[in-house]
Amino acid sequence: MKVMAHRGYSGKYPENTMLAFEEAAKTGADGIELDVQLTKDGQVVVIHDERIDRTTDGSGWVKDYTYEELKKFNAARVKGDQFGFQPIPSFEEYCAWAKNQSLFTNVELKTSIIYYPEIEEKTIALIRKYGLEDRIIFSSFNHLSILKMKELAPEIPCGALVGDRGLKYAGFYCERFGFEFYHPDFATLTEEDVKECKAHGVGINAWTVNGMEGLEKLVEWDCEGIITNYPDVPVKYFKARNND
Ligand code: G3P
Ligand code: MG
Predict the structure, then answer these.
(1) Which atom of ligand 1 sits closest to the CA of residue 33?
(2) What are phi and psi of 15, to 5 degrees?
(3) What is the pLDDT of residue 151?
């Protein structure tokens, strides 16, 4: 089972910052999940919300700032004052770093509230520029966005993200649209969903699983991946199991 660090090692470090990504890599996680949005000047940036208010010391919409303006805000503020200054990373900065890591990246396109023009094209261009094509999974709650990714880069796997209502017949749905993975909110996932996905050759990467109970259930159900705020927990768990 693959371990993905949700917004980096966000349980301990400020989410979606280079610090959280570097610390995630140190845990031995297999992958990193991050979120992308677009600035006023069309730069792909790594931040979860459409607004900067919750995670930084600024306020307003990502889409209303240029990247030069945006990078002056402190994204470490989401964890108080303990991590100094951490800027909002550009996706290019992330790709340049990831190129020299063995990790894969789950890039979540945040296009459900604002459908940023050409965010898919801009994101894939950076992935190709840094040669990361074979270490990417795209996901989005907006399935039109991953359908577009399938047109632009059919070789890159996609996961259909679904929120707290879950998705009945997710395996059938994903297979029908050519999505390799179902990314459910773990709270909605049942053993029947897992069986149905397996019958359609669709993998499951569940989020956000922070406790041991959820981890053990996913292992028992033989799911493909876990997205967690504390990647060190499943990494240690799998190491201990392998040494048994
Ligand atoms: O990709 C899994 C998870 O990140 C989806 O929800 O809101 O944390 O981006 P959110
Ligand atoms: Mg996300």
Answers:
(1) 1
(2) -55, 145
(3) 98
